[in-house]
Structures are given as C-alpha cells and as structure tokens.
C-alpha cells in the first residue's frame, strides 16, 4: 500500500497489481466449494499478496478460514448490495498487501463471524487455536442490547485492552474501518458524518501511533471528503491541475504538454548526483495525499510546484542514508531548518527517516525523505510489518506446556518484545482503569489521542518516563508514583528546583519530591498543569473525596478560593523601628534621625551607605541594594554611615518552602532556638504547594545571623532562606 494521493472511495493498490472487482469476487464466493487442490478464486488474490511478503507461508489455514467465513456469511448482503463475504475479503487483502502474517489474515477473514453469524468463539478456538480466537474476540463489538448508548465507547475500551496484549487486534480494526469508510457512500449523510468523526478522533490517531501510515493517510482523505467536501473538492482540483500533462485551467490553447514538473527535474538531478557518488539508491516521487496538500496550502497560503509531492530516496543500509544526506547537502543548497534526523531519534510510533529539503534549479525547493527499504516498510505498515511481536526465537506465548492461553503476563525478564506497549499504550491502559464511566472514558480517550507527540524524560534512578509533549512535573509525578503523587511537594528539573507547573522537554532529568506525610493532597491548581489523563483523573478523584482543606495542611483547598496572607504578629511602628534598629548606626551628621531601609534590611556587618530624605533623616541601605543605584543615578549624594558598638539588630528574612503539616511550628522552633525574637511574620497563600514566609526578627547579636539562616534552611521542606529585598518606597 502507498500513501499517495488518491480519490477517496477508490482503494489504494500496489503499482502493477490489477484492480479487483469485489462484486465479481462476491459472485465467486457464492458458487460453492472448489476442488481441494487449489484455493477458491475469491481468496486467491489474498494468497498472492500474502506470498509476496511471506513466500513460505502455509496457506492451508487461510483456505480453512475462508471456507468457514463464506459459509457462515452466505445469504448476508451489505448495504451496497454486495455479498457480505466481500467485506472480510477486502479487509484481509488490505492487511495482506501491508505484509501481515498468516495468523492476522486468518483472524481477519473471521473477524465478523462471531458478531454477525451463528459461529461462536468456542468454535473458532477449537478450529484455529487460542491465538486466532483472541484476535477475533478483540475486534468483536459489544451488543447494544446489553450496553445501550455505552456500547461504542465500551467496545473501544475492550479493543484497546486487547491491543495491550496483542497489537494485531487494532491492526484488524483499522483495516476494517478503512474498507467501511471506502464504502460509506451508501449510508445516510448524518451517519456518514458520525462515523467519520469517530474515525477522525479515534481511529486515525491510533493508526498514527501504531505507525500504519498507509492506512492513516487514506482514512484522513476519506474523512476529509465527508466532513469538509468543499475544501476537499478545491484540493482535488489543485492536485488535478498540477498533475504533469494536465491542461492549464481556462486556457483554450493549452496542450497536454504542460511545463515540465519541477519535482521530476530535481529527482533526475538527485539520481545523477548519487550515481556519480557510487551510492546505489532508488529515487521516487512520492505524491502528497489530499489532506497533506491542504495543510501545506493553509501553512503557506500559495502552493509551489514542488508542494504536491516529495522525493523519496531508498537505500540498503543505515549508513547509506547519511551518505545520501551528505551528497545532497554538498551538491545542492540545503534548507537547514527543514532537517530532521528520525533515524538517530525515531518517533514514538517506530518511524525512522531523514528529512531534509534542497533548492533545485530555478530556486525550486524540494522536500526529501531518506530511508532504507526496511524503514520504508515499517513507515508504511508500522506494527503490521513486524508480524507477531510476541514470538521470539520461535516461542509462542499463547502456548505454554502444551496449553493455549492468551498472553497476559510480562515476560520473565520484565521486558516486552512489543515496541508499542511502553509509552502511550501503557499510559492509556493505566488511566482507563480509573475511568469506569463510559462518557468520561470516551471524552478522555479523544483528548488523549489528540496529543500527537511524545517526549522522554529521565528519572534520577536511571529509569525513563514517556510523556506527551507539553507534560508538566505534575504529569511526571503521577506517571512515576501513581496515587502516591498526591503528596508531591516539588521537583528538581536538571538538578534545579522547579515548580510543579514546569513544562518538561525531551531529555530532561526530573526528580520528584514527596512529603513525608502521605495525608497531604494536591491543589486544585494542579489541574491547570496536568496534561495526561492519569494525572487529571487522579487529581479530580482526590479533590472530590476531600472537598475541605485538611487541618494544618498546605495541600488542597476549595477550588476558586485563595486564602489571605496570615499575619502572625503586629508590625512595629516606625518610631519603634527607628529606636530599636538605628541605635547601632553611626552617621557623620550630628542629631540626624537614622532609619534602616526596609527594602534591604541592613544588619552588621553589611557594607552600608546612606541618603538624606525629606525632613533631614538619613536612610541606610546595603550597598548592593537596587535602590542605591537608582538614587545615585538620580543625582542623590550618599552619606557616610557605619556600624557602632551595639551588637543587637533587627532583620527581615524570607523562607521559601514546600507546604507540609507542622512546617510553621518547625520554623518558629528553629528561630526560637537561635535566641531570635519574632517581631512580625506573614505567610503568603500557598501556590503550587510552595509557601513563602516573611519574618521580621530581633537578634541579640548580628553575628548570629548566618547560623540562624542555616538553621532555618535545615528545616525539612525549606529550600531557601534569604534577606528581604522589597521595593523601596519613594523618599
């Protein structure tokens, strides 16, 4: 299959493969049994496509599955008027052309038998084994009579859970939806739109995450045609007009020999460059599909001649990819901003390729994809190209000690062979367990699948966390600790303290800090920073169960309410401050009133300077205080000041901490132990579990200030203590 631009409604076929008439196959399917020495004609096309990828495949089981499917569906017709057997045949052909292995094709032929005929799962198990039975059961819909309106979301939940144990379940579902979308024209317009929206919101993102680009791109075009018919027709006309040999629109004298395609010219030049360099490569022009062309037009406003396709360069080895890249960047002018290396850093959906863009003759810019033939197969077919990812060294996990059983346990070494289970699928399977309500599950699933990029962050213990792009420390906490993350009080990102709202980037190292008291809980503010369903469901559940603030805790509080700062003691008057604090300052100006600036709270032995203010008073600042620079810039003349013999001083300290129970008591105890008296104190409202305390303290000896600050920093939860730096008032 190819992701080239096609007309929705017409299946995409491999180059050179004849178009298959499903109506004729339907008639053949109804003709009855054939001789045992050959396959029925109706299944022969599937066998041919299958053998192209698996020359040694045993087709006996396919024949057997076809016979059961044809006999059980006999007499059933599709809304299009075709015999129903044409549907499982078409779905199986799609998978065969993508390279699916025999077991997947067998289950595909039987995927509707249990749902729509008298065949039971037990019969499928007896005739084809546990593995095929598991796949058929995974794609079988739940009955509306049992589930009502919840049937569709619960069916998808069932399929996703089954996909967690075997990704081939979703491969069959995607092929099934593709054929249904191809034949959707017989449905009522409102039903077409409903099915198209579910395809857009759920199936297309799943195809993208499983790396099945061939199915994803055609599904996108089919949905585009149904939901946006005007834009689709406009895009279709643009592609038709840009096709080589098309006549210019509205020009009566135009001929079939239009101007040469600039992409073809660049492709010839690339072939010549690689041939001269001795690099064996296949250079193809890969037309964009309709949605891709539409997106480029929206992005650029006006399409260039090279925007209707890209060059695809296929080579034999990984090293050749970089060799091709070097030749292209040497012989053409590269567009550096377009370079991406998905070989060294593959996408989370298995995709690998080098992306670049070069400037060809006449200034035409062509995008170029460089990959090996194997990478191309995986890029097109994704997990389908991997066959059965659960069979390693010939061991089938569905069979243990001669007894068939579905794979539900992890391998003994703790590692899964399936490359899609870590990351998005594991997260999805985890959060869906906490969303028993079908509406919540359905809404959350769509939102989760809308996140189309993934990042990897590193834990300090050497592990990694896969998160969607835009995830914050809140998401990382719940991804690593689950419900224990309720007691998270902060984080370190790349070694630096960070807010829980900090958005993480790919490659960051994150350390989550948990409170010792497990009874503390999240703040409603966390919901503003949670991107993953796991985090949002857990936070919402905790807040629902704890509507009131825990006594003495800085954790949760009623949503939409911020407590006011909590004064702990009355602030002293200005005359008190002057009497208590200025007694140790010596000013070379007799009878002058001295004030210590509240913006920087100088204490011995700080280097200080003074400035005369209104009324003849002298205000003393620390020399590094920003107010000093501002007053000097304004032309104010400093006054020489110094410290006298008196050792007592008053100072304002700011303690930054993570919220926890008894924090205030522990801080005041540390202050009292240092023989400091609290003159005034305030506690600001907690923000993202961080609390700011401001203390005005009277110390018996200024020399004890460093020890006091160290003692305060040693209090658990406190991460910084500093001298106050308040904006200076106008003087």
Give a verbal description of the structure:
It contains 25 helices and 24 strands. Strands 1, 2, 3, 4, 5 and 6 form a six-stranded mixed beta sheet that branches. Helix 9 packs across helix 18. It starts with 21 loop residues before the first helix and ends in an 8-residue tail after the last strand. The N terminus and C terminus are likely disordered.
**Secondary structural class:** alpha+beta
Q: List how many beta strands DSSP finds.
A: 24
* Strand coverage percent: 15-25%
Shape assignment? elongated
What share of residues is helical?
40-55%
Helix count from the secondary structure assignment: 25
Main pleated sheet:
6 strands, mixed
Q: What's the N-to-C terminus distance? A: 78 Å
Topology, pairings included?
Elements: H1 22-29, H2 41-53, H3 60-73, H4 86-97, H5 102-109, H6 113-116, H7 121-139, H8 144-147, H9 151-165, H10 168-182, H11 189-209, H12 213-227, H13 229-242, H14 262-276, E1 282-287, H15 290-300, E2 309-315, H16 318-331, E3 333-334, E4 340-341, E5 354-359, E6 365-372, H17 373-381, E7 399-400, E8 403-404, H18 421-432, H19 438-449, E9 454-459, E10 464-468, H20 473-481, E11 488-493, E12 496-498, E13 509-514, H21 533-545, E14 566-569, H22 574-581, E15 585-587, E16 594-596, E17 608-612, E18 618-622, H23 626-633, E19 638-639, E20 641-643, E21 649-658, H24 663-673, E22 677-683, E23 690-699, H25 705-713, E24 718-723
Parallel strand pairs: 2-6, 9-13, 16-18
Antiparallel strand pairs: 1-2, 3-5, 4-5, 5-6, 7-8, 9-10, 11-12, 11-13, 14-22, 15-20, 17-18, 17-19, 21-23, 21-24, 22-23
């Amino acid at each position: 299959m190819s992701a080239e631009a096609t007309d929705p409604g017409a299946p995409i076929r491999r180059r050179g493969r004849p178009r298959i008439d499903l109506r004729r196959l339907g008639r053949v399917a109804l003709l009855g049994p054939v001789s045992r020495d050959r396959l029925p004609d109706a299944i022969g096309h599937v066998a041919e496509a299958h053998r192209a990828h698996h020359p040694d495949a045993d087709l006996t089981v396919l024949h057997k599955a076809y016979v059961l499917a044809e006999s059980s569906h006999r007499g059933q017709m599709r809304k299009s008027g075709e015999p129903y057997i044409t549907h499982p045949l078409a779905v199986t052909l799609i998978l065969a052309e993508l390279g699916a292995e025999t077991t997947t094709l067998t289950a595909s032929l039987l995927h509707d038998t249990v749902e729509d005929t008298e065949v039971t799962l037990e019969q499928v198990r007896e005739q084809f084994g546990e593995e095929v039975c598991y796949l058929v059961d995974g794609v079988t819909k739940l009955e509306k009579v049992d589930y009502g309106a919840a049937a569709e979301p619960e069916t998808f939940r069932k399929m996703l859970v089954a996909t967690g144990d075997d990704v081939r379940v979703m491969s069959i579902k995607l092929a099934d939806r593709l054929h249904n979308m191809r034949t959707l024209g017989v449905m009522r317009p409102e039903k077409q739109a409903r099915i198209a929206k579910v395809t857009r919101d759920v199936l297309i993102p799943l195809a993208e995450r499983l790396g099945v680009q061939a199915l994803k791109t055609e599904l996108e075009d089919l949905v585009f045609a149904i939901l946006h018919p005007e834009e689709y027709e406009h895009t279709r006309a643009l592609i038709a007009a840009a096709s080589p040999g098309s006549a210019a629109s509205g020009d009566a004298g135009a001929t079939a020999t239009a101007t040469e395609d600039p992409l073809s010219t660049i492709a010839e030049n690339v072939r010549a460059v690689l041939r001269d360099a001795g690099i064996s490569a296949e250079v193809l022009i890969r037309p964009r599909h309709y949605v891709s062309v539409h997106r480029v037009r929206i992005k650029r406003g006006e399409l260039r001649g090279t925007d209707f396709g890209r060059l695809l360069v296929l080579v034999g080895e990984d090293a050749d990819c970089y060799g091709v890249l070097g030749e292209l960047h040497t012989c053409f002018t590269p567009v550096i901003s377009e370079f991406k290396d998905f070989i060294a850093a593959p996408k989370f959906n298995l995709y690998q390729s080098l992306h670049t863009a070069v400037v060809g003759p006449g200034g035409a810019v062509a995008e170029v994809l460089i990959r090996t033939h194997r990478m191309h197969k995986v890029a097109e077919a994704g997990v389908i190209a991997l066959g059965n990812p659960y069979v390693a060294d010939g061991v089938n996990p569905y069979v243990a000690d001669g007894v068939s059983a579905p794979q539900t346990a992890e391998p003994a070494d703790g590692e899964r062979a399936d490359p899609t289970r870590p990351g998005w699928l594991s997260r999805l399977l985890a959060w869906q367990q906490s969303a028993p309500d079908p509406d919540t599950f359905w809404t959350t699933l769509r939102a989760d699948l809308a996140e189309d990029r993934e990042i990897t962050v590193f834990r300090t213990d050497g592990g990694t966390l896969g998160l969607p792009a835009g995830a914050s420390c809140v998401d990382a906490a719940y991804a690593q600790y689950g419900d224990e993350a309720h007691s998270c009080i902060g984080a370190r990102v790349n070694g630096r303290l960070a807010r829980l709202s900090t958005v993480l980037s790919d490659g960051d190292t994150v350390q989550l800090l948990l409170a010792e008291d497990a009874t503390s809980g999240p703040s409603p503010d966390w919901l503003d920073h949670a991107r993953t369903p796991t985090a949002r469901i857990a936070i919402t559940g905790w807040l629902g169960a704890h509507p009131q603030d825990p006594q003495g805790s800085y954790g949760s509080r009623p949503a939409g309410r911020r407590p006011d700062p909590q004064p702990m003691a009355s602030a002293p008057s200005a005359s008190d401050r002057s009497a208590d604090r200025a007694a140790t300052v010596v000013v070379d100006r007799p009878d002058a009133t001295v004030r210590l600036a509240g913006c920087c709270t100088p204490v011995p032995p700080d280097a200080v300077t003074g400035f005369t203010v209104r009324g003849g008073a002298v205000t003393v600042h620390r020399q590094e205080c920003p107010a000093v620079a501002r007053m000097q810039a304004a032309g104010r003349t400093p006054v020489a000041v110094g410290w006298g013999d008196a050792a007592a001083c008053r100072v304002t300290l700011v303690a930054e901490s993570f919220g926890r129970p008894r924090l205030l008591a522990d801080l005041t105890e540390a202050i009292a132990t240092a023989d400091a008296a609290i003159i005034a104190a305030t506690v600001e409202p907690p923000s993202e579990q961080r609390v700011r305390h401001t203390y005005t303290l009277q110390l018996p000896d200024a020399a004890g200030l460093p020890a006091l600050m160290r003692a305060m920093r040693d209090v658990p939860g406190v991460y910084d203590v500093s001298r106050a730096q308040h904006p200076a008032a106008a003087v």
